[in-house]
Structure formats: structure tokens, C-alpha cells
Design brief:
Structural class: alpha+beta
Helix content: 25-40%
Largest sheet: 8 strands, mixed
Number of helices: 20
């Protein structure tokens, strides 16, 4: 936001140079983004008077002017239309280099010589927008440098005002802050409006004009003043130049005054043409369904019932706090006005502005919050300027509709606490003095105080806010740095940290890459996450980041999509991170997630025949290897609710009746949403449950010394028979028949599945290899055969199968 250095010094006469001023502001929390000195690049620009103007012989839109520079007459080709013969305008002479970088040279334009250029305010860097030439005052001296003629001796400051400080969005508010920072005399309202003027303008009963506020919650204060007999015309040069230097385009005296008050005091105002208000009344209400308004910028807005409008007896005439309507705007024909000065609810203005896609200087301030106590004073100040510049007469006193004043609660302030937080011993009197300079009412009570912030400091709510203000005004640079004594802690010895490191080591050893993703994800990618209510953000930045993740799958899906879009053929990822749940209360836990997708490259990159797509069994193998590495005995069981897994491809992981996680093949709808072209397989674990399921120790297994013996077993079963039940049965039979004899099953693996009509209807054949070994001796064929035959016989009886020989 732009501020005038000279204007600020008029309000708070500080003794600092521009550089020192910028440094003090920055150290006090108001960042200075840019400093610009007026008049730079105007060395060869002078005041010239137009003596003659003729149509260009070769261009309809150009004219040929003869101008007087004070020392000679020059011929200038000009494209503007807003001047007349006799006007005094800025002339850039040949050799001038304007602030916008344009270099002026003698040249021919469509065959006619032009010795310089007549300039607009924009070309001189005095305004962000301008229509036509800058017409100077009639008493400007011809030939005088434009810098002197316009008294361009100001410095403009671009400041970054944080959203919590709307009180600084005006020269008055910033000057008040400067006075507090520099311990200067406080500002007085009499600087802008003398007590006599204020008293004279405040006299009389409210004007006889109906004003009704239907929604006091959205409009806690609405003031109106009637001024008759105005003369609308151009603004005086001082007003026009001051506004243009701040980026405002001069429109007319009344409108310029309302914009001037906006920058001076920070209170948005609006002037209605009184005779254009239907039914001679003002109603502050919510819009009605189907209502529209043509704004002052010429655009039409379709209104919704939650939007607040200013209306007359028949229609909306302004978007409350944002922009007036074209149907009641001030024009050259205006004689009588109704001057509005009000306060609106920030949230409603912000929402309306966003929905309609329209913003203004007024909405910028109302969205952040305007002091309710400013409304009447700003109206008085604007009235004073209108009467002085535009003439006219006030009819009646101020119409003021407001909710009852609410007493602001005092904040308990402990001096010892402030010293502890600041890390510096400041006297209680000094701290109280700083708070008083900031406009707070301070009631000292020994070792503490009761502090009541002013109405314009809505950001001061807690004791720590007051402490921050003391640090800011006293000067952060004046508080010495010191090393705080604190107990040293580290997470590297915590069990959860060590377990997470163990998980990473195992999974990287299995060929997976670790991913780290955002904790805020799209709610769509968390579809079906079990036992978790989604924690959606109240005001997300976008639809892709609207939910605190209840699981880690969403982040891995996004990471996989980016890999595929970048040209990778396959990914194997895992992530260890925090998850968030809302089961009655918000909970945070650590999770582990795996994801496989695309092509698995088993051999070297040039061995294309070895590449194959990841499948369900790759996922199953990694899950089983992870559990085995952790020393956890667990079973994979079908999911009762598929969630994000395709039906028939989902499983849950259970150990001793405790749920460890789930996985399977990801829903195609989720993969298509992020344009992953292949099947995706995933698993999600509760890291705490995995940690708890680990055995306290792992028994050392020496390298086998004695040879093993392999035996195969093939059996025919019904199609509905599951491999898991057969596997469990074989382990039980080995434990019963072999282990008592010192023979142990080292490995059990399903190596063939075969189905054919030759086996019978709805029958299939499963073939298993079984590796037997003894830790203490070399097994003989007869020993193993005896045990193996017993297992086959009992298996036939236990699961109703046929053993194929």
C-alpha cells in the first residue's frame, strides 16, 4: 500500500530521514517494500502552453500543436483529445528520459515533425492510470521545470501492512503508530478538524430522511448526512495530485474527497445523488433472490440473499462496503448528495467480494475491519472538505444508526510475566507508558495492570499480545540476546524413532523408495480409509488440499502419478508419517504405507524380457517379508469392507486377534482420477500396532549344517478350497507328526495350480514343495518318507482332498 512521506510528516512531525524512517518502521513490524522519490526522470520536462492545434494531415486521431516553452515555440504531434488551446501542460523536451523508460527524440510522426512529447500523469510516473494529458493549473509558469511547478518533493513508500493491523491502512493510523514508536506527541483530531468546526457541523437534530438498518449484525453502524446545493467539478490541484501520487484517478471533487478520506483516515465513504434515490429513503438489508445491480465500474452483479446491500425504496443502490451502483452515482448534474459513512461485518464483505469477483479500496479495508468509532468523525471531516471545495449547505444533523456500544474487556497484565517473556527487566512504569502511547487505557494495580485496548486495536486480546506490543515499540534490537538454559532432549533414543528407522531399513532393503508427502491431501484420495472420520479444513487453499490425511495412501498415489507423468515405468514406494483421526476427539498416530505400480524391473535395464508388471503377489510377498523381519506372526484375511481396495483384492492383517493394517489392489476409480495407467497395489499399517506386535527378542538361528530333503505333495480339492486353510493344516500336521521326531519343516511353498475337466467338475489341483531338515543329524529317506506319508494320509481326512501320486 502506498503512503506519502510528506503527508505523514504533516500529521506526526518526526525528525527522521527517509532511510531512518524506513528502518524504524521495519523494526516495528511494518515492512517497507519500496521507496520512490517523486520527480525522478523529469529533468527535461517543463510547463508549456498550447497556442494552436490543427488536425494532422495524415492521421485522424492525431493533432499538430504549437506550444510555447517560455524560450521558444515548438511543434508537437499529440494523440490526446482532452485539452484545449490555452491549456498548460507538461512537455518532455528532446533528450528527456521519462520514469517509464521512454526516451524522447525529435522525430517524424506520419510525415510531420514533432520536437518533444506532451505528457499524461501516467507517463510522468505520477499516476498508475490516466486519460489524456495532465492539464496544469492556469497560473503555472510557462517554461518552469515540471518538478518545481508541481512541487514534486515527496517520497512515496510502499508498505506491507499485515492483515491483523487494519488500523494502519491510512495516513492517520500510520502517523498514530509512528508517534507511539518515536515517543512523539500523540495525534489530535483538531489537526484535521478544529473543535469549532466539529462543534458547528455536529449541531442540529438529525436530518429528516428515513434510514433503516434491517440487519444490524452485518451493519453495526450506518451514518448519513445530507448536503444540498453542491457544484460538481474538477478537484483542486493539491487534492488531485495527492490522490494521483497514491495511484487514484481523479474523477470529480466530491468523489475525490471520499477517496481522500479513505487514504487520510481509513474510513470508506460513498456519496449518493440524493434525487436519484427512489422513495427518498435508505434501507440496509440483505439482497433478495433475483436482484441485480449495475456497479459504478459498469459491470452487472447478480445478488444472493446472504449479500448485504444498500437499497432505496425500490432497488439496491450499492453493494455494502464494496462499490456503489451506477443508478445513483454522483455526476456533473448532481446538486444534492447523501454522504454514507458506515461499518460492516468483515466476514460478509470478504465473502461477497470473493463470490462476485470484485474488489475495491473500501472492501480491502472492510474485509480486515474498520473501527466503528471512525464513522461519524470521517463524515464530519468529509463534510468540512466538501463545503470548502464544492460549496453547498448541510441539511440537519448526522443520521446515526448503531448498535449499543459494547465495553471492551480489560486484559490482565502482569509485569513480572512480561519481563520473563521479554528476557529483559523493563520498569513497570515504562511498560505502562508504552501501552498508553499505543492508545490503551491502563489502570495500575501494584504488580499488575488492567489494560483496555482502544477500539481500533481489535488484534489485542490477550496478555501476550500486550507483551508483543511492548517488545515492538521498545525495539527488538534493544533486547539483548542470551542463551536460554534448557534440558537437552532428543528423539533419537525414543522407541518410536528407533522403530521408524528399523521400518525404513527393512523396506529400503526390499527395494522400495521412501516418499515424504504433505499431511494435507485431497479428500478423494482418502476414500474408504477405515475407522476414521475425515478432518476437513474449514477454509482450504484448494480442492486438492482440503483434508488432514487419515492414512498415507493419498500422498503415495499423488507421488506415483507424478512419477508416471515424468516418464517412469514403475514405482515401489513407502512412507512413514503422521495420520489424523476424529473418533470422538482428534487423534494423531504414526502410520506406514506401501505402494506398488507399473513395471517391476527384476534384471538390468537392458534386459527387457525380465520386466513385468507388479501384481498382487509382489505386494503380498513384501508384506510377509516385512512381518517376518519384524518377528511378527500374522495372517492375511479377506476385508469385510473393501474401502479403497477392489472387491476380491482386499485383505486385512491380523496378529493374535489384533488388527495391524490392510491392503490390496487400489480402486480403479482412484487411479484413473490421477491418471495412473496401471494397476496399483497398496498396504497401510498402524506403526504402533506393528511395534507392539514385535517379540521382545529374536532367537539366533545358526546356519544349517545338515542337508535337507525335499518332498512334494499334490492334491485335488474343490474350487472353493483356499490355499490358506491347506497351508495351516500342513503346518499343524508337521508339528504333530514330524517335530516330535526332530524333523522340522524349513520351507512350504505352493508351486503349481492346475484346473481341468479331467479332474472333475469344479475341481483344481494344488502342488506344494516341502523342505524337511534336522538341526542335529542327517535325515534318511526312510525317516522322511514315513513322516511325509503320515501327513498325506491325515491331510486327506482333515480337508477332504484327493492325493495325486
Amino acid at each position: 500500500m502506498k503512503f506519502s512521506y510528506n503527508w505523514l510528516r504533516e500529521l506526526a512531525p518526526f525528525p527522521w530521514s527517509v532511510a531512518e524512517f524506513a528502518e524504524r518502521l521495519t523494526m516495528a513490524g511494518v515492512e517497507v517494500e519500496h521507496i520512490a522519490t517523486q520527480g525522478e526522470g523529469l529533468d527535461k520536462v517543463v510547463v508549456a502552453q498550447i497556442l494552436k492545434s490543427d488536425q494532422h494531415p495524415n492521421a485522424d486521431r492525431l493533432s499538430v500543436c504549437e506550444v510555447d516553452t517560455g524560450s521558444e515555440k515548438k511543434q508537437i504531434v499529440c494523440g490526446a483529445k482532452n485539452y484545449k488551446v490555452g491549456d498548460k501542460v507538461p512537455l518532455a523536451l528532446a533528450g528527456a528520459k521519462l520514469p517509464n523508460g521512454m526516451e524522447i527524440k525529435r522525430s517524424k510522426l506520419r510525415g510531420v515533425e514533432s520536437d518533444g512529447m506532451l505528457c499524461s500523469a501516467k507517463e510522468l510516473g505520477l499516476a498508475e492510470d490516466a486519460e489524456g494529458l495532465l492539464i496544469l493549473s492556469a497560473d503555472a509558469t510557462v517554461g518552469k521545470p515540471i518538478r518545481e511547478a508541481l512541487a514534486l518533493n515527496d517520497t512515496l513508500l510502499e508498505l506491507e501492512i499485515t492483515p491483523n493491523r487494519p488500523d494502519l491502512l491510512s495516513h492517520w493510523g500510520l502517523a498514530r503508530e509512528i508517534a507511539a514508536i518515536g515517543n512523539l506527541p500523540p495525534l489530535s483530531r483538531a489537526q484535521l478538524l478544529s473543535e469549532e468546526e466539529e462543534k458547528a457541523l455536529s449541531q442540529g437534530s438529525p436530518a429528516n430522511f428515513p434510514v433503516k438498518v434491517e440487519n444490524a449484525e452485518l451493519c453495526p453502524r450506518y451514518t448519513a448526512r445530507i448536503i444540498r446545493g453542491l457544484k460538481i467539478g474538477p478537484s483542486p490541484e493539491w487534492l488531485r495530485l495527492r490522490l494521483e501520487s497514491l495511484g487514484e484517478r481523479s474523477i470529480s471533487n466530491v468523489v475525490d474527497i471520499t477517496n481522500y478520506i479513505l487514504h487520510e483516515i481509513g474510513q470508506p465513504l460513498h456519496a449518493f445523488d440524493l434525487k436519484l434515490l427512489e422513495g427518498s429513503s435508505i434501507i440496509v438489508r440483505n439482497a433478495r433472490a433475483g436482484e441485480k445491480i449495475v456497479r459504478l465500474d459498469g459491470e452487472t452483479s447478480e445478488l444472493k440473499p446472504e449479500m448485504l446491500v444498500i437499497a432505496d425504496a425500490k432497488r439496491p443502490v450499492a453493494l455494502a462496503g464494496i462499490m456503489g451502483g451506477q443508478n445513483t452515482g454522483v455526476s456533473d448534474a448532481t446538486v444534492d448528495i447523501l454522504l454514507e459513512s458506515a461499518t460492516f461485518h468483515p466476514g460478509n464483505i470478504r465473502k461477497t467480494s470473493k463470490v462476485l469477483g470484485v474488489s475495491s479500496g473500501s472492501s480491502y479495508r472492510f474485509e480486515r475491519g474498520v473501527d466503528i468509532e471512525l464513522a461519524a468523525w470521517a463524515s464530519l471531516r468529509a463534510t468540512q472538505l466538501i463545503l470548502k471545495i464544492c460549496g453547498g449547505k448541510v441539511e440537519g444533523g448526522l443520521i446515526d444508526c448503531r448498535t449499543p456500544k459494547a465495553n471492551k474487556a480489560a486484559i490482565p497484565f502482569r509485569h513480572a510475566r512480561a519481563q520473563s517473556v521479554l528476557g529483559k527487566s523493563l520498569a513497570a512504569d515504562e511498560m505502562n507508558s508504552i501501552l498508553k502511547r499505543l492508545g490503551c487505557a491502563v489502570q495500575s494495580q501494584g504488580s499488575s495492570s488492567e489494560v483496555t485496548p482502544p477500539s481500533y486495536r481489535g488484534d489485542l486480546e490477550r496478555e501476550v499480545d500486550l507483551i508483543e506490543e511492548i517488545a515492538r515499540v521498545h525495539g527488538i534490537q534493544n533486547i539483548p540476546g542470551s542463551m536460554a538454559l534448557a534440558a537437552s532432549t532428543t528423539t533419537k533414543t525414543s522407541e518410536s524413532f528407533l522403530f521408524a528407522r528399523e521400518l525404513r531399513a527393512i523396506l529400503t532393503g526390499l527395494g522400495l523408495d521412501e516418499a515424504v508427502s504433505y499431511t494435507i491431501v485431497s479428500g478423494e484420495t482418502t476414500k474408504g480409509a477405515p475407522n476414521a472420520e475425515k478432518l476437513r479444513l474449514a477454509n482450504p487453499l484448494n480442492a486438492e488440499m482440503d483434508t488432514l490425511r487419515p492414512c498415507l495412501i493419498g500422498g503415495l498415489i499423488e507421488a506415483a502419478a507424478r512419477n508416471f507423468s515424468g516418464g517412469n515405468a514403475g514405482v515401489a514406494l513407502f512412507e512413514v508419517g503422521q495420520m489424523f483421526h476424529a473418533n470422538g476427539k482428534v487423534e494423531e498416530s504414526t502410520g506406514l504405507s506401501l505402494l506398488l505400480a507399473g513395471t517391476r524391473q527384476e534384471g538390468a535395464t537392458w534386459e527387457r524380457e525380465s520386466a513385468r508388471p507388479y501384481d498382487f503377489y509382489d505386494l503380498k510377498g513384501i508384506v510377509e517379508e516385512l512381518l517376518q523381519s519384524l518377528g511378527i506372526e500374522a495372517q492375511l484375511q479377506p476385508l469385510t469392507e473393501n474401502g479403497p481396495a477392489e472387491k476380491g483384492f482386499g485383505f486385512q492383517i491380523v496378529s493374535n486377534g489384533k488388527w495391524l493394517g490392510f491392503g490390496g489392489k487400489l480402486l480403479t476409480s482412484l487411479t484413473q482420477r490421477v491418471k495412473i495407467p496401471t494397476d496399483v497395489f497398496f498396504a497401510q499399517f498402524d506403526a504402533a500396532a506393528l511395534h507392539a506386535g514385535q517379540k521382545g527378542f529374536r532367537q539366533y538361528q545358526p546356519w544349517p549344517v545338515y542337508p535337507s530333503i525335499r518332498r512334494d505333495i499334490a492334491l485335488t480339492v474343490g474350487l472353493e478350497q483356499k490355499h490358506q486353510s491347506i497351508e495351516e493344516a500342513l503346518h499343524q500336521l508337521v508339528k504333530k507328526n514330524a517335530e516330535p521326531k526332530g524333523i522340522f519343516l524349513q520351507r512350504l511353498e505352493l508351486f503349481d495350480i492346475f484346473a481341468s475337466d479331467k479332474l472333475g467338475t469344479n475341481r483344481k489341483s494344488l502342488a506344494y514343495l516341502m523342505i524337511y531338515r534336522s538341526p542335529s543329524k542327517t535325515l534318511t529317506d526312510s525317516e522322511v518318507n514315513q513322516v511325509h506319508e503320515s501327513i498325506k494320509k491325515q491331510l486327506r481326512e482333515q480337508i477332504s482332498c484327493e492325493i495325486r501320486e
